[in-house]
Design goal:
5-stranded mixed beta barrel
């Protein structure tokens, strides 16, 4: 009987009077996290700029709500104990009272402590970069044939190839693009890929696009994830038993990682 009684001990619960404060703290911390991402420019790493206003409005809205609830709770504390607010009654709850707010608070605190990072070349390899053209999900909204080749970005080149994929059509055209370096394991040592991640909504749906680059030297001089500006001209090469439009590099310049490393 003694062992049965010991096993029936219920786990410790969060004191009832703390539950409203835990809700307020979780709401306020999430508001701070959203506004911090906006002020520090980290939103560029997480979401498409078209949706920035939603995050900013949400952050200020959560902060305002947390301040309102704090004032309300403090005013009620000054009243008689019988007038103190009753804990929120959850008619349908997966977790015991307070657990959901605790998880939200812990998640927000981790967000404040851990800086978002730019996707790396390894992420691009993991997401599959065997065929950049077919992986391109962005549909060309316009075909600007009058755009000078050297003014095209990587995504402009990929969109152009989607419209007319014959590599020989671009042979000899000037090119000047910026991106990060990828070392594809199936390419020889004188080839790299210059790439950018494309965001259509948020970081969860980001995908890489890029162009092969033929170097005049071994690619070990340009480590993976290095940001480069590459100037050269277009040629056609056979890579992986496939004819591909390739940049024959003439100059490669190291550049700092841009504030907004993604394209759209």
């Amino acid at each position: 009987m003694t062992s049965i009684s010991a096993n029936n001990k219920s786990p410790k619960k969060i004191p009832t009077f703390l539950l409203p404060w835990l809700d307020v703290l979780a709401i306020g911390t999430w508001g701070i996290l959203m506004i911090k991402y906006w002020l520090t420019g980290k939103l560029y790493l997480l979401i498409h700029p078209d949706f920035f206003w939603l995050v900013i409005a949400g952050g200020f809205g959560l902060l305002a709500l947390s301040v309102f609830k704090t004032v309300e709770l403090l005013s009620q504390l000054k009243k008689k104990p019988s007038n103190l607010p009753a804990p929120n009654v959850q008619h349908l709850s997966v977790f015991p009272p307070g657990i959901g707010s605790s998880l939200l608070l812990i998640t927000a605190l981790l967000g404040l402590a851990i800086e978002p990072q730019v996707f790396s070349s390894q992420t691009a390899l993991d997401r599959g970069i065997t065929d950049f053209v077919s992986l391109t999900r962005s549909q060309p909204q316009s075909f600007r044939s009058n755009t000078r080749p050297e003014d095209r970005s990587i995504i402009d080149w990929v969109r152009t190839l989607n419209v007319y994929p014959e590599p020989d059509a671009y042979t000899g055209q000037k090119v000047k693009v910026q991106g990060f370096v990828i070392h594809p394991p199936n390419y020889s040592e004188e080839y790299i890929i210059i790439a950018r991640f494309i965001l259509t909504c948020c970081a969860a749906d980001a995908y890489p696009v890029g162009l092969p680059v033929k170097l005049a030297q071994n690619r070990s001089a340009y480590p993976s994830d290095t940001w480069l500006e590459i100037e050269g001209e277009m040629i056609t090469t056979n890579l992986g038993n496939k004819r591909q439009l390739t940049i024959e590099a003439q100059t490669l310049t190291n550049i700092p990682k841009p504030k907004n490393p993604y394209d759209y």
